[in-house]
Amino acid sequence: MTELAPTYRSHAQTRLIWALCIASVVIYINLYTVQGMLPSIAEHFDVSGAQATLVLSVTSFTLAFSLLFYAVLSDRIGRLAPIVVSLWLLAASNILLIFAETFDELVWVRLLQGVLLAAVPAISMAYFKEQLAPNFMLKAAAVYIMANSMGGIVGRIFGGLMAQNLSWQSSMGLVFLVTLIGVALVTYLLPRKEIKPAVIKEKVSLLRKIKQDFDGFMFHLSDQQMRLAYVIGGLAFMMMVNQFSFIQLHIMAEPYGLSRFNATLIFLCYSSGTFASYLSAKWILRYGSMPLFRVALALMVVGTLLTLVDTLIAIVVGFLITACGFFLTHSCCNSFVAMRAVSHRAKATSLYLCCYYFGASIGGPYLMMFWHEAEWNGVVVGSISLLALLLLAIWRLGIHQQSTEVFNRDD
């Protein structure tokens, strides 16, 4: 960090944190607005409610694998340009949604948007680690994840509110306007100077660069603890985000009979996750990741089972508990990956998020099978199966960490 004067560095760090947090809110509004509009999308495009959930799954799928591309690109040309360009193209892509006339057209645009949405989450944690002083890092990561949660809440509630009061075209026009304002603000706030990744300065052939990129990904995939962190994040998100899709269908049906907008208010349960994300840095420093992983898993199990109680208040409390556990898991995984990566940092983060969003993309079709068999009770059974796998992954991560500690003491 000695390349920049102290006064500028402090100012640039603050601007960077604000810029990437606002960018995160913009990204998650665009990703999750459609989740708050699922019943409206089903009606407008004449598809079933379960089929409408595909507009989230397909975006998560292309987002997942595009993360790897942006990790390589940002290592080659820097962090700033990919973020700015992708955000402006994302704003422009919302114009296509305004004119989508069929469900197939909607799905194709959402596939494209997944590619554009990937830049910010792929690059942000590596950007933080390179540009921020070490004492800023954990705090910035916690605030950034809190911004992720806020963007998810705002996007879903925003979608429900628009579905209740606006046409599809008007809704997408409003999303375009909000995105445009957010992107302009991010572009203004992002510091123009950046500490370039070391790999940019290397003068090597194209084949050598490709090999370096491949080796970077393999370096992290060969690390057992990294692999387990990737699996933990993927399984947790596979369950969590798709539970929120199917619970809307559940509470709009009898005996609850909630309206479209009232059903989307269930997304306010993400607020407990926002709170957990904010406190996660302090908890990780005090207790360590492994105890928090176990607490988070217990919270997700209790919260999921509580939704089987046949009252609306039990469902709300269950989702508050589950969201808290999920975001605690996500914060632990994010911090673990960022702090463990000593090189190829963007690749380490992108591999984690690739698994994370790939989990989201396959979780919809996976839980849809259980929904068709037994509706919400089936979704709970499918969720508990995923949590059992999550338990196994957390247990194995704990075993590997203990083995590493013993090995280090023996040395």
Automatic annotation (TrEMBL):
Belongs to the major facilitator superfamily. It comes from the Bacteria. PANTHER family: BLL2771 PROTEIN, INNER MEMBRANE TRANSPORT PROTEIN YNFM. Residues 16-400 form the Major facilitator superfamily (MFS) profile domain. It comes from Shewanella ulleungensis. It is a multi-pass membrane protein. It is found in: Cell membrane. Keywords: Cell membrane, Membrane, Transmembrane, Transmembrane helix, Transport. This is MFS transporter. Its main location: membrane. InterPro entries: MFS (IPR011701), MFS_dom (IPR020846), MFS_trans_sf (IPR036259). The chain crosses the membrane at residues 16-34, 54-73, 80-100, 106-128, 140-159, 171-191, 228-249, 261-279, 291-309, 315-339, 351-372, 378-399. Pfam families: MFS_1.
